[in-house]
Amino acid sequence: MTQLSLPRGYKNAEVLHNNLQSKKEEHWIKSGQKRALRLFHSMARDVPAYKKFLKKQGINTADIKGFKDFSSVPALDKNNYLRAYSRPDLCWEGKFAEQSWVVSTTSGSTGEPYYFPRTDTQDKFLAITTELYLRANFNIQNKSTLYIDAFPMGAWIGGVFTYESIRQVAEKGYPLSIITPGIHRQEVINAVKQLGHEFDQVIIAAYAPHLKDILDQGSEQGVNWKNYNIGLIFSAEAFSETFRDYILKTVGAKNTLRSTLNHYGTVDLGTMAHETPLSILVRRLLVKDDKLSILFPEDKRQPTLAQYDPSLFYFEQEGKNLLCSSYSGIPLFRYDLKDYGGVLTKKEVYKRLRASGYDIDAIIKEKGIESTVWNLPFVYVYERDDFSVSYYAFLIYPDTVRRALQAVEFEKHITGKFTMEVDYDKNGNQRFKIYIEKKPTQEEKTLKDKLKKHIHTQLCEENSEYRVTAEIIGEKFQPHIYLLDNGDPDYFKPGTKQKWVI
After folding, report:
1. What DSSP designation does 183 have?
2. Of 150, 346, 402, 479, which is the most buried if we count CB atoms within 10 A?
C-alpha cells in the first residue's frame, strides 16, 4: 500500500523554519511539483477509482512526465469523482473498512454532506505547520500558553483536527495546554476568567463571527480582555481588515501582524495554507492605500491572502478556480476546490509591490518581522463563487454587506452576522432581503433605516451594476432589512458556521 509520510526534513520545526528562510522559493515549488507527480502515478497505480477515471478520460499515465503535463489531466471534483465512485474505490488499494481512520463530514452548505476519512499523517501535516506558526507568531517555545479550541467539536473537522494538532505539538515539550469548550461561548469566557492569568498568553481559536460573539459577550459581562495577553486564530471564514482591527482593539493586542492568523482549509484536504505576518502586512498595505488591484483581480473585495508549502499542498490556478493536490485518506490530484482565487509566487508579489512604489524589504524591517518571513508562494481566495445572490441578473457577494455592517456606529447594536437572499413578492417582483442578528440589547428605533441606507450606499460604491440599476428603479430596489433576535434558531444558530447566503 502507498505509504503516506511527511517529506524529508519535516520533523524538527526549528530546522524547517531555518530552511524555509534560507532555501529559495524555487526549491519549495520544485519539491511540490515532484511530490505531486509522484502522487499522480501512485494514485494511477493504487487507487481503483482513479484508474477508472483516467481510463474513462483517455489519459495515458506514461504521458504525464512532469508538472507541465498536469494541465492535460482533467480536474477532480465531488460530482465527477467523489460521488461517482464507491468510498472503498476512492481509497488506497480500495481499502476503507480495513483501515483505521478519523472521519469528518462537510457542513453540507453546497449540498448533501460528504464524509472524508483522515489519516494520522494528515494530522502530522497540520501539527508541523501549526508548530511553525505558533513559534513564529506566538513564541510558544518561551511562553506558557493556554490554547482554547472553540471550533465545533462534533463530526466536523475544525475542532477535533485542531485538538489533535495542538496535542501533538504539546507532546514535544512546549509549555502548552489545551481546553476544548467548542462552540459554547460562556465556557470559553469562563476558561479565560478562571485560567487566563495562570499563563503568559491565551490563544482563542474560533470561526470569526463566533469569536466576535465571544468577545462581545465577555465585554458585556465585564471581562476586560486587555488584562490577558490574547492571540486569536480563525478558520473557514473570510473577513476584512476592519474586522481584524476591531478584534485587535477589543483584546488590546499590540502586535498587529503576529496576534491574529486565519487558516485556509477544507474538510476535503484539511488545512492547506495560513496567514503569515508577511501576508497580513501585504494585504493591509493594499487595503490601506486602496490598491488591491496590484495583486488581485478585484479592486474592492478583500481576499484571504495566505502562504502555503507546495511540498504538502500543491496549488494550481485554472481560470478563476483553485485546484489542489495532496496525499490524504482519499488522495486527490488536481482537485477543484470550487473556490475563486489564484496563486502568486513570493517573487512576483515582491516585484509588483516594488513596481508600485513599496520598498517591501524596508517595510518588513520597520515592522520587525524579518524572523518570520518564509520563502513560500501565496494563495489568495475570495468567498465561494457560488456563495452569492443573483439580483436583477447580477451578483451580490456577502463581502460588501459585511463591510457595511462593520461600521463603528453599529458595533453596539448588531453582531455582524447576516444572511441574504433574493425572493419574489406576489406580483413577481424581486426582493433583496438581508436578515441581521441583533445583539441581546434593546433595539434602537432608527437602526433598521440606518442599516438599509448604509448597506445601499456601500453597494452603490462597490457594485456598478447595482448602482446603475438603483438609479433607474429607485427606492423599491433597495434592500429589505430584517432585524432578528440574537441566536435566532433559523438564521443564527449559536456556534455553527454562519450561512451568509440562502
Report:
1. T
2. 150
Per DSSP, the residues of 88-102 read: HHHSGGG-STTS--E
Tell how strand 260-266 and strand 230-235 pair up: parallel
Residue-by-residue pLDDT tens, the chain, 502 positions: 555 667 777 889 999 999 999 999 999 999 999 999 999 999 999 999 999 999 999 999 999 999 999 999 999 998 999 999 999 999 999 999 988 888 887 755 444 678 888 888 888 888 999 999 999 999 999 999 999 999 888 777 788 889 999 999 999 999 999 999 988 889 999 999 999 999 999 999 998 877 888 998 899 899 999 999 999 999 877 788 988 998 999 999 989 999 999 999 888 888 999 999 999 999 999 999 999 999 999 888 889 999 999 999 999 999 999 999 998 889 999 999 988 899 999 999 999 999 999 999 999 999 999 999 999 999 999 866 557 776 765 678 788 888 888 888 888 888 888 999 888 676 656 788 999 999 887 666 788 889 999 999 988 887 777 787 778 777 878 899 999 988 888 888 876 677 888 7
Q: Which residue has the cell 457595511?
A: 404
Asked if residue 311 lies in contact with residue 32, where contact means CB atoms within 8 angstroms, the answer is: yes
Phi, psi of 198 (to 5 degrees): -80, -15
Beta strands in 308-429 (DSSP E): 314-318, 321-326, 332-344, 378-381, 389-391, 394-396, 414-424
- CA distances to 108, 395, 401 from 405, rounded to whole Å, are 26, 19, 6
> Could you give the CA distance from residue 85 to residue 105 in angstroms, rounded to a whole number?
17
Q: Return the amino acid letter for 109.
A: S
Encoded amino acid at 32, one letter: G
Quote the CA–CA distance of 210 and 217 in Å, as a whole number: 10
Element housing 49 (H / E): helix 48-57
What is this structure's pTM? 0.82
